[in-house]
Design goal:
alpha/beta, Arc Repressor Mutant, subunit A, 3 domains, 9-stranded mixed sheet, 11 strands, 44% helix, rod-shaped, LysR_HTH_N, transcription cis-regulatory region binding
């Protein structure tokens, strides 16, 4: 295996280049003269070229040394900045967070923005997909942290309860059911539905909640995001069932109507996912604490 250039060798080179003398350079960086000489010799051997013209004990940079010195000096300054930042108590680094659509669009985006405002030296990438995709991304180490709406079926991940949520059935104001004080299961079975796609956490929870209650479910349309479902339901085509979080604005402005369905109450849990054997960085742990 070939020898690697070390920071120690570069520090020795930089000190000798500035001071022109091995003895004084060794003293400045707290090395013995023999250790400094050996480090310089190792560096020159690795590069395949001398870096100095030697005049007795005095060393002067040759052409190659003059070209190399500013680059080495800049690299050492960057290394020093890294060391200082590591001990400053400030958070640094890059984190990729994956969230299913309800969480990502209606909860987490604002939370992450507030966290980044508190820690300007960090970079967080938020990826929004359905719960099945987030689980797959976690298993294959494409993301560092995941938040999902459905149930995690993987034994490779740790799923911690994060927030509670409620799914509500809704329709357009012009729909015949919109004026009723209570909607029965029999009435729900007679309607067409507009639902999220398979793989969505919302769809999985809806299916589990209705499989023994709605024997004849007529799905007219499957769509891949909450906004598309809301727009389709507004046309009067059928009913939808989604998180109350995603409907707050439309319900408030009378664009959609929440149906009272006492026989179909759907509550669910949001989960925070971490890898069973995945190292949790200080940044990841800090974000988890912030959004808890």
């Amino acid at each position: 295996m070939s020898m690697k250039i070390t920071l120690k060798q570069l520090r020795v080179f930089d000190a000798i280049a500035r001071l022109g003398n091995v003895s004084r350079a060794a003293e400045q960086i707290a090395l013995s003269q023999s250790a400094a000489s050996m480090s310089l010799a190792d560096l020159e051997q690795h590069l395949g070229s001398p870096l100095f013209n030697r005049h007795g004990k005095k060393l002067q940079l040759n052409d190659y040394g003059r070209w190399l010195h500013p680059k080495v000096h800049q690299l050492l300054q960057q290394a020093e900045n890294i060391e200082l930042s590591a001990h400053s108590g400030e958070l640094h680094g890059h984190l990729i967070v994956g969230a299913s659509s309800t969480i990502g669009n209606y909860l987490l985006a604002a939370m992450v923005a507030e966290f980044v405002k508190l820690h300007p030296d960090i970079h967080i990438q938020l990826r929004v997909a359905n719960s099945e995709q987030i689980v797959d991304d976690m298993i294959n180490l494409r993301i560092d942290l995941g938040l999902i709406e459905g149930i995690c079926h993987s034994h490779q991940l740790i799923a911690q309860p994060w927030r509670s949520d409620e799914l509500i059935t809704f329709c357009s104001p012009s729909h015949p059911l919109a004026q009723l004080d209570s909607v029965s299961l029999a009435e729900l079975e007679q309607q067409q539905w507009i639902l999220r796609e398979s793989g969505s956490g919302t769809r999985e929870i809806f299916t589990l909640a209705t499989q023994h209650k709605l024997k004849h479910l007529m799905v007219a349309l499957e769509l891949g995001n909450s906004m598309a479902i809301k727009q389709a339901v507004k046309t009067g085509l059928g009913l939808g069932c989604m998180s109350r979080l995603t409907l707050a604005s439309e319900l408030r402005h009378g664009e959609l109507v929440a149906l009272p369905t006492p026989e179909l109450q759907i509550e669910r849990q949001f989960y925070l996912l971490t890898g069973k054997h995945q190292h949790q960085s200080e940044l990841s742990l800090s974000l988890q604490h912030f959004i808890a």
